[in-house]
Amino acid sequence: MASQPAADMDFKALPKIEVSHLFCTYTVETSLLAPISRRTLHDIWVRKKQAGETDLADPLVEMPDGKHDYNLTTFFPLFSSYIYNLITDPVTLHAATLSVLQDFHADGVTYLELRTTPRSLPSPTPQPPSAYVSTILSAIAAFEAAHPGPGAMRTRLILSVDRRHTPAQARETVRLASRFREQGVVGVDLCGDPAARVHGVPGQDDVSIFRAPSPRPRSSG
User: Fold this and answer.
1) Are the beta carbons of 204 and 198 closer than 8 angstroms?
2) Residue 101 near residue 142, CB atoms below 8 Å
3) Dihedral of alpha carbons 214, 217, 219, 221, sign
4) Which helix (H) or strand (E) segment is 189 a member of?
5) pLDDT tens sequence across 71-122
6) Which architecture characterizes domain 12-26+88-219 according to CATH?
7) What pTM was computed for the model?
8) Beta bridge partners of 158
């Protein structure tokens, strides 16, 4: 039997393994590394706007669905502004994570590793990075419980240390990875701008400052 042409294959039906940043995924439509969908950001913006919690313009006005002529220089600063100013509380973070998981599941992904950099959540009351991690893990558990059986997607979490972080921040990320290991955190990695300086401190412009925290994740498996 002759094989079907690749153009006739249902690529979404093929099981896939994916590693992606939680709010930064590749989309064919834009040919860019794009975070959560603009539609999801719009829905979050509507709730925040009605509650008087944001002065940002509508994401769908600033970044219309039909606009694809972005590049990395123009796209990421704009999206990052919306992500950091709209995803500020556990409820919103939980909903945004579910949206990302749904997109991967709809694309036929069966095993997913998400990378994210732990950060504080400023509202409604300040929440530490541990709350950020636990909220994402809670969303993952809820999604897996709601989508069992054949075609189910298993998701694990990787915590990222930003190159702009201090050694103390790096140690905290490693500690969180160890603390949440049994809940689905499977590793730690280094992310961010390779040219970044740490607060402009001489001698703190390369990965050597992160060598001290690294033995602990290895000893934790």
Assistant:
1) yes
2) no
3) negative
4) strand 185-191
5) 666 666 777 788 888 999 999 999 999 999 998 998 889 999 999 999 999 9
6) Alpha-Beta Barrel (3.20)
7) 0.79
8) 115, 187
